[in-house]
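Troubleshooting log. The previous run stalled partway through. Resubmitting the same two chains, unchanged.
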Amino acid sequence: MLVMGEVHTGLLQNSGEIPESTCRDVLQLLSGERVRVSRRPIVYAVSPDLLTGVDCRLPSASQSRIRGAGTVLSRSSITGGRVVQGSSHTRIERSGSDRRQPWSHYLARPGVVEALGKAKPRDLADGFAEEPSADGLDLGAISARFMDVVQSSPLLDRRAPFKIARTRLRWVAEPGEPAIHFTLHSDQMRTVRLVHTGEFTPAVVDLCEDLALHDWLLTALLVIIERARIGGTPGPEAAAKLAPAVDHLLHLWMPSARVDDLLSPYWESLDRRPGFTRQWQSLVDRVRDQLAVHTLAFLREKSGGGAR
Amino acid sequence: MLIFAISDKGGTGRSVTSTNIVYRHALQGNDVCYLDFDFGSPTAGAIFSVGSVARGTTRKGLHDYLLSEVAPEPHRVDVWTESDREGLRTKPPGAGRLVLFPGNEGGGELPAVDEEALRRCVQLFSRLDEEFDLVMVDVSAGRSFTAEMVLQATVRLPSVPFRWLVFHRWTRQHILAADGLVNGADGLLDVGTRFGHDRDKLRDRIRFVRTAVLEPDAAELVGLRDEQRAWLFACDTELRELASRHKVGRTAMLGKIPLDPILQWREQLISDEDVLASKIANAETAAAFDDLAKKIVDDAAWEGL
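Second attempt completed without errors. Output:
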């Protein structure tokens, strides 16, 4: 019927970026299962998929009480040894029976939640964009836990270079005429409504994670620039506040790096409007220009001091 | 950094002082949040002038987060946008985020510390430490399960820095009670050591804050008779001696907040406007909050005793 997911993204709680080998150790959530790593164009490590059993109310914009039972697929990942993601998704399907089945039935279909009752895809999708009710399906809570597992690893020193909020990207994918809508809600909340042709593929999950990653990078850079108060504080102070962006963020922008060719038109359409890369590039230029201006001022001051 | 605010007894001005400290810390450009762990009477919303949560939230509060089955994401209140006070509703340039996590309306004190609540408490502190420069936790008055829980939680977060502020008034009873709360039987040091803290290291992370202090040379006392002033002076000297005998003296003190009539009438944030424009608050009070907001993160003020 449809697939829904939520991706949480945040800064790895470590003073510097961690090497590939440490990424492997941190993401070894299940013994025996391998951590997958890709190295180009940026080091990306992802944990094996883990299942969480759920039996709860499904989201519904019309407040219908529809029960769902099944499993959610989740994973944790680290990009560039610096950015952590916790990602969960599940496919909602109509149950063949009106009755709740034994767990063995659901475990045989990993990543599927069966709706017991008359669920309408549109109603489910609309309801998913809202905050989950107390007894509702809360993929965000599961994703947050998958981030916590990484962040609390004893292999990390917990001395992150700056404080920054996690962002949450909630997404729904339905079959139909291709389209994508990205919406910014509060400071941390975003939603993506995606319509794809043909069958759902895991590549859609990769796309949403990639979007979440780049949206977080953009958000983090905006926060750092705001904190620097360019023009409102003395140059050296502003420059010092911008430094963490150069040290830890600017090299991580690799849009569409892990996105399937078939899905890259979605990224391209978002890059046209609202224009992620355009905004990113202008912010990066701003940071670099500020640092250049500061360097010039510093040099001028130094040579002036020497002449006296 | 986590800051735990506790007081020897109720009515010491713990909540109003700790809220003013986070407010000042936010004005100084830091991202801060305030956790109302005073589960018996969650009134921080009133101090921040957020009417909808004046007596705690009716949505998912901290109480729900720690105790309910599903641990929902706790309700966040952005003070800069949700305060009813016009002067607070615009974030001043350069200020950081100021977020309140209210308790549940009608929540009630923690009945005990169970493993699940403790695990969630650790998770919450750990997540907020990722996001905020300073996390102020209002732990309520006296010995409580809440204090016990946060002492245990900090043992499990060895790399997250934390500090304790013990608020007390400047009277004989309060000095004795503050000493008892920290150094007495089943006090913070005893309980903390029992759960795995190093006693000396924990002591180095505890400082006292005196509230509603009336200095014998204060301007308010000009109208007093000489005999009254002499008596006050003698009292103050006696209290100083008592305090230093009970390890609540100057070296263990982080700061003091002068008695301000405005805070006796209404517990509220003291903005610069209250001092400069309407002049209802004393400049010394605002300066004392500002000073404390700097000192809580100043390592020099926290060197070993």
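Takeaways: Chain B has a mean pLDDT of 92. Chain B touches chain A through 22 residues (CB under 8 Å).
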